[in-house]
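Example record

The entry below shows one chain as it appears in the dataset: sequence first, then structure tokens.
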Amino acid sequence: MDRRRFLIAAAGTAGTGLLAGCDRLGDEARRFLAGVGLREPWPAVLRPGMAEGHALRDAASWPAPQDEIVTEVAILGGGVAGLSAAWQLARAGLRDFLLVEGPEFGGNAAAGRFGELGFPRGAHYLPLPSLESAHIREMLADTGVIARDPFGARPEFDERALVHAPDERLLFDGKWHDGLLPSEAVAGAEAAQHARFLARMAQLKDARGGDGRKAFAIPLALASQDPAWTALDRQSMRQWMAAEGFTSPTLHAYVDYCCRDDYGAGHDAISAWAGVYYFASRAGHAANAADGAVLTWPDGLHTLVARLAARIDARRAGGTPTGKTGTRPWRQPGMAVQVREHGREVRVLCAQWPGGTAAGAPRLFRIRARRVICAMPLHVAAHVAPLAAFGFDPARHLPPSAPWLVSSFRLRGFPDERPGVPLAWDNVVHGGRGLGYVVSTHQLIRQAMPADTVFTAYCPLDAAAAPDMAAGTAPRAPADTRRWLAAATPAELMDYATTDLRAAYGRAFWRHADAAEITVRGHAMASPRPGFLANAGAAALRDADGRILFAHADLSGLSVFEEAAWWGTRAARRITG
């Protein structure tokens, strides 16, 4: 889309207060669009994995494979878990492995570009790793993000990766405030609750169970199993806050935002254990940054994906691959559609569609491997692998997953700001339908603002932000929202993508934006509802130690980088010993 068409689209819909399909435009806006002869003034829309997933779900059978690949280890899925497994195998000296990328290499850590400007299509930051997250510290040291003392109490990090100030701000009561909790803008009693809540979370960072483990460790597998703490999983985070005497509306709005940010659902739906884990598990420190700092890059966590891939390349080039693999690449486009054990090997049927999307007839190929790591979301694995044989019943054990929109806008110059704190890396609208937006050029060290930038807006489509249906009611079930997403026009998606940007800048935003991309993620992340810790099916997959192994953040029920990387590296270590 060129700048002229983009601006005309914005101007033509400004009178309605939102961007929407032509059937929903007012008469004045409709006449404007007709007058300029504009027919399709909408953004690029990406739906990674949707067509492939539907093809997998609906396929009654698959054609015979045309090719066959033999390898020691096959990794099925190119997200953080699969890439972590490949990185760990390469570190251990195993070079005869093949990673099948799936619909999107990088998964929730993928990225896009507008010319020279990179931006995230998913996850955009990583908290400082705690002592328990030794696997993350190993990764960060290997990729140059930790410069010194990787396993000390306060490692030294690459300054370019540490988020720069101002890092967070909140639009509250018409003014930007520092941080995401407007303590200085509310009455004393309410501010006192803010302070008490933060003190309680700080206290829980050091809490331990009767088994000696931290009550809230990341990865979750290292957390205490003491029933005194796991009992929190029997109630919602909102219920826990009420029982603890936290009644402040702004505090509830903040915690609700945090739960939607990491779990895709509000604090009335999320397990209290998971809600506390959000605050209490992240206890990392740095020698050259304040506590609570995060690591980020212009394209989000895709920088880590690229660096891990580069380290795998370097290690495989540094030795002779085992077996008759020659110089075969370790990454293979395609998607696993069937996994079955066959004697002393595992056979994987894979499909590869021309052009990278599930349109037309796929090319089928088979992989024969001694071990297989299923590093795909569980809702996909349920159609690919014989999960019932491991004790996993999809009807009972699949974690609920949240749909999201991740939308990026290229700006020529910056819109004028409201009073208060200047533009930050992360910008949030109090009580907003979305989760705010991040600025891709924030980390670039310059004396002056860059000429161009990218704002990336995040919007989980949970009950608080669910789109209106034709009948005028808001869908509450994620399945309803996914059906809406599958049929929504780019214009309807744009309405939700710009919800916080309109609140922050109004019509002035469109004087600067000249390109847009919306990524639709129908199953973006697992939502840990009350009872998720007792998921027997997930526990069975975590314990699997045969020819087929499992590795994905879904095994924890928490869709965060540290959990995905934990299960990926753990599966690889089970293979290499």
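Notes for this example: The chain has three domains: 3-41+400-526, 50-110+316-398+532-576, 126-162+168-292. DSSP finds 18 helices and 21 strands in the chain.
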